From TrEMBL:
Keywords: Metal-binding. A divalent metal cation 2 binds at H64. Belongs to the GTP cyclohydrolase I type 2/NIF3 family. InterPro entries: DUF34/NIF3, DUF34/NIF3_sf. It comes from Fusobacterium pseudoperiodonticum. This is Nif3-like dinuclear metal center hexameric protein. The lineage of its organism: Bacteria, Fusobacteriati, Fusobacteriota, Fusobacteriia, Fusobacteriales.
Length: 258
């Protein structure tokens, strides 16, 4: 299957225009006309990920996180980003990233996280009416629950061993929740204006956590990697009618808990 046809399938459901302005999505290295038979899905384009793709004779890597954001002024083997680009070109491997357009689109990754938790009814936290997409989902639990009980359910349904909780009271009653996969603590104040009881995201920093706690808002940091590593499940649904071969390769999370 031609690369551009694969991209067209994905971007029909998750348009590139739905990505945030700062994002860098799309075909980052490669050839739109390249024939693709085998795709590797990886959340990040680490050197280990690229080396695995070479070993497995992959034609195309699809990542969630782009590995190129800033302008590149030189490409040499001594620089890690350059080393990746050289390896991809040398081995004729395309790399395509689908990031915030996958997060924010209807039936995208944020919706899929809610689906895993058992919720389908929601409203957008930050809605773009023209594009019919947006960052964040606000939903209500079927019944009021203790924060501690909800935490255990969250860990079980998303298969997370450890997470961070910002709250003075684990017995606090939870009913209305806002959730954003990845890294989105910058939205906690906007979410609090919606009179939520709990905000869930990843990459929570100390000062934001302190401010949120003092405001009375409970926060769960369920991890950046942990909330997105299954992004391939969303994409494979869109590509299931093709004859493509898929493999998933994600090294261990960057952060480990001991």
């Amino acid at each position: 299957m031609i690369t551009r046809d694969i991209i067209n399938i994905l971007e029909k459901k998750f348009p590139k225009i739905n990505a945030e302005e700062w994002d860098n999505v799309g075909l980052l290295v490669g050839d739109y006309d390249k024939e693709v038979k085998k795709i590797q899905f990886s959340i990040d384009a680490s050197l280990e990920v690229i080396e695995n793709a070479i070993k497995e004779k992959v034609d195309m890597i699809i990542t969630h996180h782009p590995f190129i954001f800033k302008a590149i002024k030189s490409i040499n083997e001594q620089d890690i980003l350059s080393k990746k680009i050289r390896a991809l070109i040398r081995n004729d491997i395309n790399i395509y990233s689908i990031h915030t357009n996958l997060d924010s689109s209807v039936s995208g990754l944020n919706d899929y996280v809610l689906e895993k938790l058992g919720y389908t009814d929601y409203k957008f936290l930050d809605y773009d009416e023209e594009k019919n997409c947006g960052i964040g989902r606000i939903f209500k639990l079927d019944e009021e629950k203790d924060l501690k009980k909800f935490i255990e359910e969250l860990k079980l349904k998303l298969q997370i061993s450890n997470l961070r909780v910002i709250s003075n009271d684990l017995n606090k009653k939870i009913k209305k929740v806002a959730l954003i996969n990845g890294s989105a603590m910058s939205y906690w104040r906007k979410a609090k204006k919606e009179k939520i009881d709990l905000f869930i995201t990843g990459d929570v920093g100390y000062h934001d956590a302190l401010d949120a706690r003092e405001s009375g808002l409970a926060v769960i940091d369920f991890g950046h990697y942990e909330s997105e590593h299954f992004f391939h499940e969303v994409l494979i649904k869109e590509l299931k009618d093709t004859n493509l071969e898929f493999l998933v390769y994600n090294p261990e999370p960057v952060f480990k808990f001991y």
